[in-house]
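Why run this: before we spend reagent on co-expression, it is cheaper to look at a predicted model of the complex and decide which construct boundaries make sense. The entries below are exactly what would go into the expression plan.
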Amino acid sequence: MDFQIVSQVLLPEIFVLLGIVITILTSLFETSKKHNAGIAAVFLLLASLACYKNLFFDFSESILFNSFINDQFSMLLRALIYGVSFLIVLGASQYLKVLESPAEYYPIILSSTLGAGVLCGANDFLVFFVALETLGLGAILITAYARFNKASNEAGIKYLVTSAISTAMLLLAISFIYGLTKATNFSLVAQTMYEFSNLGVLSQPLLILISVLLCAVIAFKLAAAPFHNWSPDVYSGAPTSTTVFLSVVSKVAAFAVAIRIFSTVFHNEQIQILLMVFAVLSIVIGNYVGVIQMISRGSVKRLLAYSSIAQAGYLLIALSIFTPESLSALLLYLIIYAMMNTGAFLCAMYFEQITNSIKIFDYSGMIKKRSGMVIAFAFCLISLAGLPLIPASFIAKFFLFSTAFSSGFVFGKVLAIIGLVGSIIALFYYMYLVKILVVDDVSTAVKAIPEKDEHPSRMIKTATFIAVIKLVVVGIFMMDYLKELATDTISRFFL
Amino acid sequence: MQLDISNFSFFTDGLTLNHYLTLSSLLFSIGLYGIITRNNAFRVLMSIEVMLNAININFVAFAHFIDPLVVQGQAFSLFIMAIAAAEAAIGLALLLLIYRNRVNIRMDSFNTLKW
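The model came back. Tokens follow.
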């Protein structure tokens, strides 16, 4: 094993790790504390660029006794994760100023990001477990970060308990896999399982138990119904910068690991059926409760939480169909979803900061005061709804449903129709939100907003601007390229 | 009539893998039951530890009976212990914070976040 290869493969992770160490050290001094956000952002940007560099030179390698794999899939998703985290840190640098000690937030969010990045390349159940816990434990800490906010504390303890149960289920599944195959490496497990099933000695009930447990854990991490109950509470209680992190980074990492396990380790009918049930339930529950949330004048963070449950449902359709075409559609939609959801949450973060409220109706008539951010918010919401006004998300969603429809399975058609109906229902609350911000009368909370921002919110605006510009540029110029890249990436799993 | 204990493999062959798996599944169920039913948040944290340690038993038993040469399972259980300790630390810190803010740590009082 060559040290040079390892360092080149793990270059993005080394950058993030350096960021963690430096931000911990700078948190020690009052004078250097305030640069933490900048340092974290710089290292995340470097990490993302290092991923793009590896992706560009197609540097595929598996290292550390085949326990970490650096294929095109992992490089692409790591680049995405570090890029999104960069935007989140930019937004958080302004948003967290109201807390009494924002500096320590950055080492934690960096280590969580590191876990998410490693998860995309994990090729061993041990690495998978440790990376998942790095992601999860860090996420708990940043959920409960607003120390004197009761909602934030409560979200933290709820997330801790539910994620501990999911960890235990995951470990149970891994222990049975280990007991069955004597190995924890993905490729060794796959090989042994293949041999056993050829010999006819693979215990079916045990295999079903393992599949159910793994699907449950992945559904939990994706916040897909029926394992979604933690997500609205945690999303609305946590600081909004954490909410973005949970709804984008955590979800992308979970999909990465789901695709890798199901395509390289094992896959069977039970998994397919379970994921289908999860997909249908997520679409139905996410959209139904989203509509109720909208009508009952709830909080915008909770609304976006239900919308991201529904989005996870659309993505799960593609995961449950599990053909190479549907998986590449999933990858394409995941990339677009990460950008538009980040944009939407960053706007929500900005509105929360200027009005000190997360209630939807406190934002009515916002366009009179902050037209730029409202337009950006509307843009992201229209993208999430999948209207053809913005090419990126429409093409990705069209591709997702059309591959489900033409997959050759009867249930594929049914799922695509359910997904389409769900998207139409979702259109109601996305558009209603836009209507409230643009058309409705100005609320008292909005009237109280000064013409100019008191505390400079340049960073949130910059991050939103980057997300929106990415979405536009990708949508207009790069969809063909991205589609080819996704197809190529997924086809390497099915050689 | 005398009971012939040599018929029980438990006394003759010693413990088999099944005994360990039974123990671990019982402990796992007790832990899950504790998480669901206990009202005190400390007990919930303790139940989480019970669940994770049940899985440690599983791993070590598999390592001993199935994989005695490489013992990968034992290494795995060390990692689980480390992560469980981290989880307990975070949980205790959180409970301390909640106790300061609300003066109780009853699970059913965490009900401010509702839709």
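Residues 295-495 of chain A form one domain. The first strand of chain A starts at residue 61 and ends at 63. Bring this page to Monday's planning discussion.
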